[in-house]
């Protein structure tokens, strides 16, 4: 959890859905997010902000789980990113094909 956009989204979701959310702690994370030295574990996020959108369990059958709304948002973003990547790859392939068709050599 290093990206500022992730912290912003989680903070927004928590402020809407969690009346016990500690926004002062969130503001501290938000100001640090995106810097090279910033790292935040889900467990730290949950403990320091009183978050309810993530659940982090240690041990056997442990892991980090997200509320279904948060999960759906990230699945949508993943699908959009994949479709953008496929589009960019298709555009790149078309440019290479045109270059070859015109007898030009491809840059390395």
Question: Your description of this structure?
Answer:
By secondary structure, the chain is mostly helical. The chain has two domains: 1-66, no CATH class; 67-103. 61% of the residues lie in helices and 7% in strands. It has four helices and two strands; from the N terminus they run αααββα. It has helices spanning 4-17, 23-32, 42-49, 68-101; strands at residues 54-57, 63-66. Strands 1-2 form a two-stranded antiparallel ribbon. A hairpin with a 5-residue loop joins β1 and β2. α1 (4-17) runs antiparallel to α2. The radius of gyration is 20 Å and the shape is elongated. The two termini are 35 Å apart.
From the structure above, extract its key features.
2 strands; mainly alpha; elongated; single chain; 2 domains; 7% strand; 108 residues; two-stranded antiparallel ribbon
The best one-word shape is elongated
Look at the helices and sheets and give the structural class: mainly alpha
Strand content: 5-15%
> How much helical structure, as a percent, in the residues?
55-70%
Number of strands: 2
Straight-line distance between termini = 35 Å
Order of helices and strands: HHHEEH
Low-confidence region ranges? none
The main sheet comes to:
2 strands, antiparallel
Order of adjacent strands in the largest pleated sheet = 1-2
The figure for the number of domains is 2
Helix tally equals 4
Overall mean confidence score, pLDDT: 84
Rg:
20 Å
